[in-house]
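Throughout this chapter, every protein is written as a compact record of paired, labelled lines. An example of such a record is reproduced below:
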Amino acid sequence: MLIRWRTAKSIASYLKVDGMKNMGNNGDGPDHWYQFREALKSRTSDPSHHPSYWGYFLVGVLLLGGLGIWVEILRIILSKNTPDLTSLCVAINVFYPSLGCASALQFVWGEYPKMLRALAIVMCGLFVVPCVLIAIFGHYTGWVLFWEIILSLISLWSWWITNADNRNLLDPDPPTAYGPSNATEALGGTLQGFKVI
């Protein structure tokens, strides 16, 4: 019974489920939409408290992962001619599906709840379909650039929530202090047998 309770408790803490909020409208079973929202909320907010996570995200994912985009932006800034957005749109058009789909597929192959796996499949479609359509029709306009930027932000969020529990990117918890919970209490034990100077 203790094992079953601990498992239920760990699932509840993972999904941040509390009280009856996780029940459906009739109280007859779990509200999976609530659990889904809470899982996304916690995976979005929890890593933000870790400086190492931010460092990897900014340097590894945004700067180095998006290097092709930054090169195109620099080329447009340094150009003396009227800027052509085609190369920038192409760079962004290969960035967001690469990052977004690779991140989403981590949910599919990892040991995650089905709701996150389903989200991953939807996100892969969200990234692949526009990428292919933009590449086929080749209309690189300001509107296309706008939607590519939106899709890039979604792909960055996809990476963020996928790696939210990656211990290699998170800062370790501070060491636990041992002793009584009340710091004013005397510690147990004696100094008998020791010479106190």
